[in-house]
Design brief:
The protein contains 14 helices and 24 strands. The chain has 419 residues and is α/β, with parallel strands linked by helices. It is elongated and about 65 Å long. The structure holds uridine-diphosphate-N-acetylglucosamine.
Length: 419
């Protein structure tokens, strides 16, 4: 797909304030959850992201009425009787699998195409399906189409995930929120976005306890109602701007964030030599000194270091003093930024799960290509810290998770524009 490109003239020091948008990884499951309410939900702090627009198109195709004004999305799911997500819509957004639990919970049947691989490697959903089967759902796969029908739900289901999958935890929560029975999820994902989904569902009348811990208990209720809810801030967007401050020796005040969600990121930027000062709903980052290498970073489920921030930190460490090592434990194929960063002069060796970054004194602008959302954001970060002009293509990947990244960065002094 031909999409716009970003032209970045590197070397500008970024200073000022940026207001961080609502979290992509939170708004998508919350939009799916609006299906369960049967009437009107008003979702505030919803960023204008192509993935969120794709989620809205799915909701419309299922019969919801949607209006979108600024950062507020209003969903009326009173007539949402659809049970099928078309192939085209499934492909638009790789996280559309989160609609499975919501549609099943709402209408008792769901047909959608099996998600194939994506930029990050194979995206299995075995844990989602195994858990739904434990909840009485009958599942068949035919020519790549998943056909799921709700059956008799056990009065008590105790599900232990073999790994704390974010999407599987969300699908189980969505499917268990409506109806009879108690569902316990052990080794549940603890990402803050899970607690945000639980917060929305609880406000709609769901009974969920254990948010933020690895054991969630969901007591199904006969019905849910709509509510007004504000999506949590995007911790990955915030970390991206921290990366941008770090590579430009900048000073940024990030507003509208939740520092308590970001300890693992903040400590990595501190270790790089940045001053990182969290206050209430703000983080001030000051990067007056050159970046230094850090001890080995290992991506882990929350509260460990997030895989989504890994490419951004890799970009920042490319221009540093010393050698850093990153071990990617979550996704197979998450060093997509490395070859492009090398075009900008970075010295990165990546093999399997491990990347070794020998910091260089300076990066140079180059023509590079985004191959996935966060790898794209990493290239923007590197381009801001590079000498000369960079041209980043495939910006549609970046638009999946950042609302007009160039507007936010220009407002703090970056020379960046979309062509
Ligand atoms: C979510 C986030 C994504 C983030 C990821 C990990 C959204 C929309 N996306 O993705 O940005 O990078 O969490 O924090 O919230 N796995 C299985 N079987 C399954 C499910 C997952 O083996 O049934 C594996 C995956 O291949 C991966 C790991 O578990 O290696 C983590 O995946 P998961 O937590 O499910 O990520 P997503 O929900 O897809």
């Amino acid at each position: 797909m031909e999409s716009s490109r970003l032209l970045v003239e590197g070397g500008r020091r970024l200073t000022g304030e940026i207001r961080v948008h609502g979290a992509k990884n939170s708004v998508l499951p919350i939009l799916a959850a609006t299906l369960l309410c049967g009437n009107i939900s008003v979702v505030h702090n919803s960023a204008s992201l192509s993935d969120a627009f794709a989620a809205m198109r799915i909701l419309r195709s299922l019969g919801c009425e949607i209006s979108h004004e600024g950062s507020t999305v209003t969903v009326n799911s009173a007539d949402a009787n659809g049970d099928t997500v078309s192939d085209g819509l499934m492909h638009e957004m790789r996280s559309s699998i989160v609609f499975l639990g919501a549609i099943l919970g709402r209408v008792g049947h769901c047909r959608l195409s099996f998600p194939g691989g994506c930029e990050l490697g194979p995206r299995p959903i075995d844990l989602h399906l195994e858990a739904l089967r434990r909840l009485g759902v009958r599942i068949t796969v035919d020519h790549g189409i998943l056909d799921c029908t709700a059956g008799v739900r056990p009065a008590n289901a105790d599900i232990t995930l073999s790994l704390p999958s974010v999407g599987a935890t969300e699908n189980i929560m969505l499917y268990s929120a409506l109806g009879a029975g108690e569902t316990v999820i052990r080794n549940a994902a603890r990402e803050p976005e899970i607690a945000d989904l639980a917060g929305y569902l609880t406000k709609c009348g769901a009974e969920i306890s254990g948010q933020g811990t690895s054991t969630l208990v969901i007591n199904g209720v006969p019905e849910l109602h709509g509510c007004e809810y504000s999506v949590m801030p995007d911790r990955i967007e915030a970390a991206t701007y921290m990366g941008a401050a770090a590579v430009t020796h900048g000073e940024l005040m990030l507003k509208g964030v939740r520092p308590s969600d970001m300890y693992s990121c903040m400590s990595v930027f501190s270790e790089m030599g940045c001053g990182v000062y969290p206050y209430d709903d703000k983080i001030f980052i000051s990067a007056r000194k050159p970046i230094t290498a850090v001890r080995t970073i290992r991506t882990m489920p929350y509260p460990g270091f997030p895989t989504d921030c890994q490419p951004i930190v890799m970009a920042a460490l490319s221009k540093s003093a010393g050698t850093s090592v990153i071990v990617e434990n979550i996704f197979e194929n998450r060093f997509m930024a490395a070859p492009e960063l090398r075009r900008m002069g970075a010295n990165i060796k990546a093999e399997g799960k491990v990347a070794v970054i020998e910091g260089v004194k300076s990066l140079c602008g180059a023509k590079v290509r985004a191959f996935d959302l966060r790898a794209g954001a990493a290239l923007v970060v590197a381009a801001l810290g590079a000498e000369g002009q960079s041209e980043i293509s495939n910006v549609h990947y970046i638009d999946r998770g950042y609302e007009s990244i160039e507007t936010a960065l220009s407002s703090v002094g970056a020379d960046i524009r979309r062509i």
